[in-house]
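Chain A, query sequence.
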Amino acid sequence: MGGPTATRPPDRPRAALGDELEAWLRAGKDTTLGGLAQLFGPRSFALVFVLLLGVPALPLPTGGATHVFEIAAVVVAAQLVAGRDHIWLPRRWARVDIAAPHRRRFLHALLRLVRRLERLSRPRLRFLFHHRLSDAAFGCLAATGAMAAFVAPPFSGLDTLPALGVVLLSLGVLLEDAAIAVLGVVVGAVGVALEVALGAALLRAIAAML
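Chain A, predicted structure.
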């Protein structure tokens, strides 16, 4: 008689995203952007978009102070479109400490948002994620949202919706929830449309005055 049939152990479920982020921050070993990119691998693209565009996504006029984040997001998005598996960052950007004291309040707010979405979300249309074509589309949408936030007039608050759209889209990708990803695309599209409409109205007003 043969011995017992070997069975493959079940796959261990991945820890919740909020728990992973909190554990990484609590460990305090390397809380820089470069450390995040190394630890989270391909998922770091979406995480970096959340961290870079999370500040302009706040409903507060930034006065152009976040332009460097938006430029960095475009650079990272271009790498995703090009098919890179891991992020390349200039040394200066890679050394940015995400857990610096002045960023703690933002990180706590971000963790609350992630946990709230995790409670509401569930995997939807998972087959759409993490393919060459879908990653390229994700990169194009992220770059579009970041550029829209960049060109928004200072102190107008018009950078909020395009940046928030990228944040929601990125969290949808991380949670593999197509509903949240689509919500992000819709929010970003509304932000871009509002920016274009108000810009056109401003140009017409200026032309009428001349």
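Residues 17-209 form one domain. Residues 34 and 94 are 4 Å apart (CA to CA).
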